[in-house]
Amino acid sequence: MDTNTANLLQQDPGPAALQGIKVVEMGQLIAGPFCGKTLGEFGAEVIKIEATGTGDPLRNWRLLQNGTSVWWQVQSRNKKSVALDLRQQEAQDIARRLIAEADVLVENFRPGTLEAWGMSPQELHAINPGLVMLRISGYGQSGPYRDLPGFGVIGEAMGGLRHLTAEPGRVPVRVGVSIGDTLAALHGVIGVMMALYHRKVNGGAGQVIDVALHEAVFNVMESLIPEYSAFGVVREAAGSALPGIAPSNAYPCQDGWVLVAGNGDSIFKRLMDTIGRPDLGNAPDLAGNAGRVARVQEIDAAIGAWTAERGIAQVMDALAAARVPAGKVYTAKDIAEDPHYRARQMILQQHTRDGHTLEVPGIVPKLSGTPGTVRSSAPHLGDDTDAVLQSMGLDAQQIAALRERGIVQ
């Protein structure tokens, strides 16, 4: 076992930034649960309400170990699972009782779902005025597209990202992960923290945070709209290049690809000296970015010719010595074997409730005084139903009666 990994898991977790905050998570799959995961890593108590029967569909996504997704082991660590059949009134009553004692509610259902269960913001704030309610959906809680179904991939398309993720003239492609969902979740976390701070310093009132998947994507699209507004320019796909900034691209090596960002004025000169092209480095018209953009194809060809004759390690060593930002394109294997990831505790060993040990991603961001921790592994469906119901005052006989009627699992 790696020393850094072992020490992290054995240390006293100490104080938690969100200790004392109770979160009820009613979402499923990615956007809502990723938000709950992040809050849980920093000390919030996260009670996840899942459907009886199968629970969160993420339990069965991608590669399974003993019938459970290994993705689930990351997404649902530090959470308690309560299985309720929310189609039944009694289960809805239990959910309302949990929400009445919560600081935060996270949900990513289609708009109108909670309202149909008698859990509109108005109804929930009537029983819990301080509730911070995060609602993540495809198109938001208002607007003409409100009721359309929307997943993260659709948000990526409408937000403008998919138009750019391609080689010029070729089909737009995924970035490889559910980036639309995750961006929405991170915006949700920011909203929750701002709302909790406002509640603390301004009298205790809660509020609703409305996050649309496409808006979270659109928020990181940089100069896309200002350029269209000012110049009528529609930014197009550019493959691995960074349009309007040069040189910044992926270049072939003998054993793979390297990304090189030589777009700073002094960095560019050092890069050209390193690849044996001082003529380009000293050219007056290439001293600034605008001139380099005008000759970007020539510059890219010069860099590519140099990298193509070398292996990745040789290229990386030479550029590091010249203080030129460069990076190998990492695979999962590269990440798992990289000493920097280990040194910064970004690969953790986590034990599942089925007795397995997995290496999983560490915790971001890193807080010096109240760091995030993995306090418990991902639960089986309904693992915590009895304990949570007992904390609400129900006795064993009452819980057994609910279970017999299929209200809880």
TrEMBL record:
Keyword Transferase assigned: yes
Keyword Transferase: yes
Keywords per UniProt: Transferase
Coiled coil: none
InterPro entries: CoA-transferase_III (IPR050509), CoA-Trfase_fam_III (IPR003673), CoA-Trfase_III_dom3_sf (IPR044855), CoA-Trfase_III_dom_1_sf (IPR023606)
A GO MF term: formyl-CoA transferase activity
Record Gene3D superfamilies: Crotonobetainyl-coa:carnitine coa-transferase, domain 1, formyl-coa transferase, domain 3
SUPFAM superfamilies, A to Z: CoA-transferase family III (CaiB/BaiF)
EC number: 2.8.3.16
The name this protein goes by in its record: Formyl-CoA transferase
Organism: Comamonas odontotermitis
